[in-house]
Each structure stands twice: as structure tokens, then as C-alpha cells.
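Annotators were shown the component list below and the corresponding predicted structure, then asked to write short factual statements about the assembly.
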Amino acid sequence: MIAELVIFIILGIVAVSSAFAVILSKNPVYAVLFLVINFFALAMLYLVLSAQFVAFIQILVYAGAIMVLFLFVVMLLNLTGAIESLQDKLPAQRWLAPALGMVLLVEIAVVFLSGFFAQVPEASELPEGFGTSAPVGMLLFSRYVLPFEVTSAVLLIAMVGSIVLAKRRP
Amino acid sequence: MNKELLLTAGIHLLVAIVILGFILFVVMYMIWGLRRIMGFMQVRIGPNRLGWQGLLQTPADALKLLQKEDVIPKGADRWLFTIAPIIVFVPAYMVYVVMPFGDGLIAKDLNIGILYVSAITSIAVIGIVIAGWASNNKWSLLGAFRAAAQLVAYEVPMILALCVPVIFAGSLRMGGIIEAQEGGWFTNWFIFRGYGIPALAFLIYMAAGLAEVNHIPFDIMEAESELVAGFNVEYSGMKFALFFLEEFAAAFTICAIAVTLFFGGWHAPFPFLGENLTGIAKMAVSLFWFLAKTAVFVFVLMWIRATWPRVRVDQLMNFGWKVMIPMGLFILLAAGTVVTLGWVKL
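Structure shown to annotators:
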């Protein structure tokens, strides 16, 4: 139990500090790399929760594939000097972003505080094979089949949309 | 309690050291074998001076690389330049945690074994891209771009192909997949079952695997005739040695995974060649069969390297997206159909 707590605290510190490093890095390439570290810390947190399948899918999809694409784009556009000019193009964002951020913060605070005073259920024994691929797959294709299909439709639309945008002649 | 914990930690450390030693040994003699075999195929001699038949050539080369000056270019990002080879090598080493060397010779038979392999190997790409970018060299940056595009394109068909034996075995566990091919005869191996669907999956896996470990014909990210040496052009000394080590260790991994998923893993091809043994003897014989089968594929890889030309970038991308991925989706569907309808005896 104590070991689990220590691991949780270390992973939490890594996750939070790497998340801060993502937004504070001057160089976009470093920001992407800190995001990779953050995803790893999250994956390890899933492992602590015995969700092995989700943990390694997290590494495979986010840390492995999506971050490579991020790096690709960041290097291709060579964004290091482009951040200031981007700020001028989106003036509304300067006001909208802190406002929406505050809303999110309040939401998190409400969830956290309501959970803080509530009775935490006693930790129970995990069912056989918890967190492995078979039960996750079963849930995904039976109880959560609608969200699953909606997600895939959203991804398909994004894919088609990006191809349409890329193919459009200027 | 604490004593037990220390003992387990000690055993784990020992296993890790043994596996590292195994990788170093295998890579050294893969490099020697490659040079001798390519020499033979191209009607020249190859290294044969240092030691019997040149067996000490690669250890000597490794020693030379250790002594080399560690050059970091002036314009390079020092920090990323230094950690990039480590990011590349560590995943290639971590994969060996689930490598089923023989009956009972598997460091940790994780129940998500094959998923673990593909997740961990996908990290190496980040190291390659970082290496190319941090060198601050146009050739290496081009190599990094190619690496990113190629590895993302080929990871998808690879995972689709891996799904086929997983569906047939009904398990992601390495041990489980091997148990599903048990029975003594080589006809129980997945490659000879299921109406040729696993055979097609094997071909897709090998092609994507060659691209994944940036092996000829898909080594466009370090194509020496156009990009000098691609992403690792600025590297020298030990850092270069780590890239080299990773490349060969990953090639061995690809072959070993192919053997595990499609060719029965550690099982002998005939029942009288080691199925009825027990204990240490069974362990040794299964280790022998695993290494022997893997060696055949390593040889085929070297054969390919000695004889095939390199594809062009556009051909590579077209082949990946327009041929490999549709084929991968097709075999995934076919395998699912066949297993669901019960047309194969599992």
C-alpha cells in the first residue's frame, strides 16, 4: 500500500511538472517531448490502477504515433520564431483562453471538493482478468458501443475534412 | 519480507544483465555474419583476419568505437543530441522482457505481451526523429522527416498483421500464442493453418517489420546514396554504436516475433525432436529451436540486404498506404470471419 502511494506521488509530480513544462517551453520541440513524458506518466498511473491494456494503448497511440506526427509538423513548420506572429493573428484568444480556463478550473474544483467530502467506497477485490484486453473489448462492444461508434465517426469526419482542406486549390 | 523483496529485485537485475549480454553477443555476431554472408554473396571475402574466420573483428570494432572522440556539432542541441541514442536503444532492449526464448525462458509473460512489444517499439521513432532534428544538419533533418512519415505509415499494417495470430490464439500473451501452436507437428504452426490467412499476415508483418527497423529495401531514412547517412550522419563514437546496436537488436526482434507468432515459437517441427522432454532438457531444446528458427529469418534478412535495391520515397509511401493497409484490413476481417464462423479448428 505504502509502495503504491509513493509510486503514485512520484508519477503525479512527474505528470504535473511535465504538463507545466509543455506550456512553459520556449521551443516547441521541447514542448512536444515534455508531452511525451506526460503521456508516459499517465500510462504508468493506469498501470498502478491495474489497467494494463489501456496503459499500453496510451503509449502506442499517444506517445508513439500521435507525438511523432506532432514532432513532424513542428519540425516541418519550424515554429520557433512563429509564435509571436501567431499571437497577433488571434486577438480574441487572449481574452477567451483565460476565461474558458477559469471555467474549467471551477469545474475541476467543484468535482474535487464534492468528491473530497463524500464517502469513499471501500477498495474491493478486482474481478478476474481486470484491465486485460478481453473485458475491455467486451465492454467497448456491448455497453459502450454507441460512444465507441460515435468516436470513430468523429475521427472519420476529421480525416475526410483534413483531406478536403489539403486538396483545395488556393 | 524485506529479504524476499531484495531477492526478487536481485533476480530481476540478473535477468536484465543476462538479456543485455545476450543482445550484445547476438548483435556482434549478426554484424560479423552479415559482413561475411554479404561478402560471400557479392563474391568477395569479408573480414577474415582477426581471430578464426574473423570472429574477433566486431569486438575489435566495438572497442575502437568506444575510444573514438565524442563529437557534438557546434549548432546541435547538446541535450537532445545526447539523449536521442538512449531513447532509441532503451525500447529495443525493453522489448526483450516478453521475448519467449524457450519453455520457461521468458522474463515476464505479460498478458498483453504482443501489445507491449508494439507499444514499446513505437517509442524508438521519437528518438530517431529527435536525433535528426538535434543534429542541426539538413541531411539528418530530411532523414528524420522520412523516418516519421515511414514509421507512422508502416506501424498500422504491422499491428493489423499482428492481430491475426492473436485472433487465432485468442490471447495477447506470448506464451498463450505459442501454446495455441502446440501439438508437435509443424502443421500446427499458424503459418500452415487458417486457409493461408496467417501466411498473408506473415508477409505483411515481415514487410512492415523491415520498414520498421529501417532495413533494405525500406531504409530510405538513412539512404547513404542520397542522404549521406540520414538521421545519424553527425553521430560518432559510442552514440553511433548505440544506433547501430539498436538497428541489429530490432532486426533480431522482428525475426523472433515472427517465429513466435507464425512459426510455433519454441516448438520443434517434429514431435520426436524434443516434445517429450522435461525439465532442463526441455528448456535447452526449446531454446535451441527458438534460436535456430530465428537464425533462419536473420539469414533471410541478410540475403535481402545483399541483393535488393532500395525503394524510392514516393514508392514507399504509396506501397504503405495503398497496398499494405488495405491488405491488413482485409486479412483482419478474413481472420475474424473465419474464427467467428468456426471454420478453423482452434
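Statements collected:
1. The interface with chain A takes residues 80, 110-112, 115-116, 118-120, 122-123, 125-126, 129-130, 133, 141, 144-145, 148-149, 151-152, 155, 159, 172 of chain B (CB under 8 Å).
2. Residues 73-340 of chain B form one domain.
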